[in-house]
Amino acid sequence: RVSDTGKGQIDQISAPVYVISEVGRMINDLGEESVFVNAYNTDDKIKEIRFNDINLSATLQSNTVTVADLMRGDIIQIAEDVNNTMESSNMVVRYLNGRTTPYESAAAHWYAYADADTFCSDGYAYCAGVIKRFVKNGVVINNKPDDTENWDKWDRVITTKSNTPVYICDNARETVTLGTVDDLKVGDKVFSLLRESEPNKFVVYRD
Fold first, then answer.
1. pLDDT digits (tens, 9 = 90+) for 91-112
2. Order of all β-strands in the sheet with 75-81
């Protein structure tokens, strides 16, 4: 490496969010073993992300993982090493496949919609839950955490369009593929990233 590692900062609002499709091992600039992932952003193009440190870690809920623990279907944000833009030096985890329980960003990002028990996002938000039903031009997702009550109070309306990016993580087939909103089903476990009240992407998880 021509210079010391420079840990880049992650803009957690506007930074790209990547859906991992493949994980592998590599040798970094210092000749040390590390990890790379192939991941989707918002289209069908794969980006290779190379991490400069195999011990780089991040925490979501009670799960702390290193890049060596990443799996197909995990969702991350990253920052490049400011001194070596071929490698990444920072990571935020948004979803861990099979390890994340329902959650959503702060309640301040949601407002009442249609009735007192249903809400939608007013800006930037992340959520992970289950599709409860379809409504005109969208779906209702319930993001109820396991340790709370009042199921209906966690209903969230998310608008969908024909071009909303959808990725399907099929754990049985060990694949992540590009889908469409027509592939969404009641009961699907989903992660959604919302930008200006509309989904930037849906990631569907099926076993």
1. 999 999 999 999 887 655 566 5
2. 46-50, 33-40, 18-27, 75-81, 84-95
Q: Which residues contact 192 (CB under 8 A, 6 or more apart)?
A: 126, 127, 128, 141, 158, 199, 201, 202, 203
Partnered with residue 167 across adjacent β-strands are 178, 203
| Pair 186, 131: CB distance under 8 Å | yes
Q: Supply φ then ψ for residue 180, to 5 degrees.
A: -135, 170
The letter for the amino acid at 78 is I
pTM of this prediction?
0.86
* Encoded amino acid at 160, one letter: T
Number of H-type helices and E-type strands within the chain: 0, 17
User: The tokens of 117 are what?
Assistant: 């028990």
Q: 């969404």: which residue's tokens? A: 184
Question: What sign results for the dihedral spanned by CA atoms 160, 164, 106, 190?
Answer: positive
Q: How many CB atoms lie within 10 A of CB 123?
A: 14
- pLDDT per position as a tens digit, 111-157: 655 554 556 666 677 889 999 999 888 898 888 877 666 666 778 88
